[in-house]
Amino acid sequence: MFCMCGLLSLPVQGILAVIVLLMTLVFWMLYFKDSPYARKHRSDDEKYFMDENARQVPFPSLEDEYSLDLSIIVPAYNEQDRIRPMLESCLHFLTDVGRKWTFEVIVVSDGSTDGTCDIVMEYMQQYGSDRIRLLKLYKNRGKGGAVCLGMQSARGRILLFADADGATKFQDIEKLETALHFLATNDIAESTKPVYAVVCGSRAHLETESKAQRSVFRTFLMMCFHMHVWLFGVRTIKDTQCGFKLFTRPAAKILFNNLHVDGWAFDVEMLYIAEKLKFKLAEVPVHWTEIEGSKIVPVWSWLEMGCDVLAIWLRYRTGSWKIHK
Q: Is the pTM above the cut of 0.90?
């Protein structure tokens, strides 16, 4: 009997040793691996864009005063097959004769190895570098990293990020802007105090229809992810992952200077910070169509996002990540 207990205790000791090792590793990652404040590295080449005369021009900074009405940030990784229709739709809407917005579209090539950059430069030549700019990242950072660096290079009074697939209609910008003005209670352009507000495009109203088109397993995983986000992340926004969000410049300055997560879950961290700082938040239904070619890998990407959401909650709760205002 003694020998049997001794033999049984060996696996238990091994399991305990693994648990202690994992706890030590987590503790080290939380407190010693990186700075509590977010820092996005940017090489010297990534601080410039190419204008229509093939000259390198430095990007402005989000810390500067705004000089345009609207900046649109488009993260793009190997999007040569989807970005042209998106840019056509976006620019057709923004250059409508009756629309008086001054705008810029910043496409952030997130280490693309296909023809994405060439297509963007075609549009830059056509519309000019004051309206179309390419931020070329030489290393893939992830969607969150690409959006952050694009936002930090923007000139707009209000700033939108939109996915390169064009799944959301750009006409919905007006709905988001209306909601943003409502949150601000007065015209943002005339406000003397900083307005910290975010409006999120939402596909929550399409959930019933999308469930009918997905398998039971994928629907279950999606519901689990939403519950996971609600428990450990964001409670005021139902659809945290819709790639169509509008920000006031003061809100963008705080949020995109504080993001640690570079992957798909960056939206959750961003909204987590916004809730923590009591920013004004709203969710607006938008038109949305699924476009083939998504970079999200079913199951694996959701698991990755789930781990990131848990890490966001844990790091902020333990104080290993802090918010710099």
A: no
